[in-house]
Structures are given as structure tokens and as C-alpha cells.
Amino acid sequence: MENHMDFNISKPGRLMVKMCIPSVITILVMQIYHMADTFFIGKLRSPAMLSGLSLASPIIAILSTVGVLVGGGGSAALAMALGRKDSISSAKIVSFSFWSSLGLGTVVGGILLVTLNKLVPFFGASPEASVYCRQYILILAAGAPAMCFPQAMGSLIRGKGKSYQSLIGNMVGSVLNILLDPLFIFVLKMDVRGAAIATVTSNLAASFFYVIYLNQPSFGISASIKNFTMKRETSLTVLSLGLPMAFTTIITFISSILSNKILASYGDIIISSVSITRKIISFVTMLQMGITAGMQPVLAFLFGSGNYKDLKIFTRRTALATIVAGSLLTATCYVSGPSLIRAFMDNPNVIDNGVRCIRIMLLAGPVAGLQQLATTFFQTTKRPLISLALSLTRDGLIYLPVLFLFNSIWGFSGYLVARPVATSTSALLGLVLIFTLFPKGHGDLKDKKLI
Fold first, then answer.
1. Rounded to 5 degrees, what angle do the CA atoms 291, 292, 298 make?
2. d(Cα 48, Cα 218) in Å, to the nearest integer?
3. Where are the beta strands (DSSP E) in 1-53?
4. DSSP category for residue 341
5. Do residues 375 and 244 make contact, with C-beta atoms less than 8 angstroms apart?
6. Using one digit for the tens of pLDDT, what is the confidence trace for 4-29?
7. What is the pLDDT of residues 185-203, one digit of tens each?
8. How many C-beta atoms lie closer than 10 Å to residue 105's C-beta?
9. Residues with Cβ < 8 Å from 85, sequence gap 6 or more?
10. pTM
């Protein structure tokens, strides 16, 4: 069994390229594949279908929560264990993340199926859009284990430095989804149901890839059920480290429902415009998230080994990388806004509203990654409560009050402005906390063996 991390910290620039580029590509490709459903359904020129698909999007957030919880937490815990050269704990972490992602996915899928008839009306869909919303959710819920497992495993294997293998697994699912969407939607004329079937099928293919890879000698750590344990020193560590990221997903889910209920009062055209805009501007935040996710194992490894000097160096480099990347992509979206909106739906009203949405909602795009970095930093330095609090800010504790206040005062304009205000505020808070609470030496927050 290999008990080392697959990277060399003596060359920071090369290491960042090795870890970040596959992670960024993975997340951006995943975003394209999530966007594929919206893109192809938009070609049917039915605002009701697009609205129903948009209002069902929080379900993907629910399913992602499982993958983020056990995969993200497992990645950080695995990197720390490898930093301590603890092969026994590493095997327990891998096995726990593997089997719990399947088990929790099954449980969540069952809950969604039982509560389906209550969920759709709660989302605020119009009578016509609710039909498509229900169709989409039903199929995703039935395939929930396959939706949760590949995201968890993609994150987990990055904890050992296997960033390129994580990329390949995500590429398998993403490319297949993009290929299957037009087949099911247009050729087989399955519309929204076809989009959902393509999504589940592609995730199932990615799941098979990860199962095969994790059983290869090159990975070096067995996911055998024999190593599975529910003992708190393993389960609690993984879940507590994954909880901040999972709560981010949950808060995103809640804020999506609440913001969608506000949007529902503006009609299907506005819902379609904002839905498309969210897909486009998410490239900015996803790019920044890819950078922080790629560096998470490095930060966790450095903390686990007590190397706080290099931890500071890599934290600063990661912050700078998110700002530069966010600024470049924000500028690109500003310039290409009309063309990007038109690519989804060639409707003058949707295009006009979409361009307005992009130019307002992306005002804080360059600094959005700082909040993600702060959440990741405190997660990997075993301060989950601080990380959890930060994860609740951008889409929850700050965003929701601002959203309802601004919407009540300025209507739809206030709805749009709430996003950059919340993002910039939470980014500033995260940056201040990193500077204030950064470990100052080997005796400060020295990593204790929890597993």
C-alpha cells in the first residue's frame, strides 16, 4: 500500500499547475455537462420546459451534498493521514467514503421519491412548468446513488494527489452526457425526461470508471468493505471535514428555492433569463472553486505535516490565482454576454434580461474565490466550526436577508444587486479571518491524530 502523497512541494509553481489545472478542467467540464440540459432544452424554445428544468435544479444540489460531504471530507482527511504517513487510517478513510456515498445516495433518493408530490408545488412552478419539473426530479431521484458516487470519488482520489485520474473520471461522465442529451431529447423526442435520463446514465458510466480505478494497484489504497468502519475516529473526522462544503451546498439549495420563489412572481421569461445567466456566470465561481479544490489536498498535507511556512506560501498563491482567474473570466462574460445568452435561447426578451443579469450579478466576480478559499482553508486546518460559519455566509446568513430586503425595495433590480453585495461581503470576511487566525508556528493548532 502506498502511504505517500503524489506530489512534490519543493516546486510550488509546477505543483499548482499539476493540481489546479485538472481540478479546474474537471469542474468546468462538469459545469458544461450540467449546462447541457439547459442548452438543449432551450433549443426547444419552450419557456415552460426551461422554467421547469430550472426550478428542479436544487435537487442536483441535494444529491451533490452527499458527494461533497463524504468525498470532500474524505479528501481532506486522506491528505492529512498521508501527511502523517498513516496507511491504516488512509485505508479506513477510503473505504468509509466509498461505501457511505452509495448508502447515503440510496437513502436520499428514496426520500426524494416519497416527497416528490410535495416538493414540486413548494418550488413555485407554474402549472405547465410543474409537469416538466416533476419528470426531471423523478428520474434523478431514481438514479440518486449514481449521481452521488462519482462526485464523492472524484474528490476523494484528489486527496492522494491523483488529480488527473479525477479529471478522467469526470470527463467520462461529462462528455457522455453531452453526447446523450441530443439523442434522448431530439432523436427519441423525450424532452425533459430525456435530459434527466442522459444525466443519470452518464453518472453511472463515471461510477464504473471510479470503481475500476480504485481497484487498480496504482491507487495503492483499498476500498474493500473489510476496511469499512463507522467508528467515530474515522466517520466523525470525514464528516466533520466535509460538513462545511456540504452546508454550502445545502444553503445553496435553500437559497435557490427561496430565490426561485421570488423569481416565479416575475414570470417564465424572467425565470428563463436568470436560469441561463446563472449557468454562464457560474463559470467564474466554478473556475475559482476548481483552483481551491485542486489546492485543498496540498494545504491539508502541509497542515498535517506541520509545515506552516509552506502552508502560508501556498495559501497566498492560491488567493492570487483565484483573483486573476476570476477577473479574466468576468471580463470575458461582460464582453460576450449577448452572444452567450443567445446560444441558449434566441428570444429577444430573454437576451435583454440575461445581459442585464450578467452585468449586475458578476460585479463581485473577481473576488468571489476568496470566500471559497477561506472555507477550504479552515476546513483543511481542522477548524470546521469557522469553516462552517463561513460556508453559511454568501448564500445564507448574508445573501438571504439582503435578497429579501433589496427585492422588497427595488424589485427585480434589487434581486440582482443582492448577489454581488453578499459575495463581496463574505469574501472580505473570509480574507480577514485567514489573516487573523493563520497558524503561527508548530505549536499553534498542531495537527492531532484523530483517526
1. 105
2. 48
3. none
4. H
5. yes
6. 555 567 777 788 888 888 888 877 77
7. 888 888 889 989 999 999 9
8. 24
9. 3, 4
10. 0.71
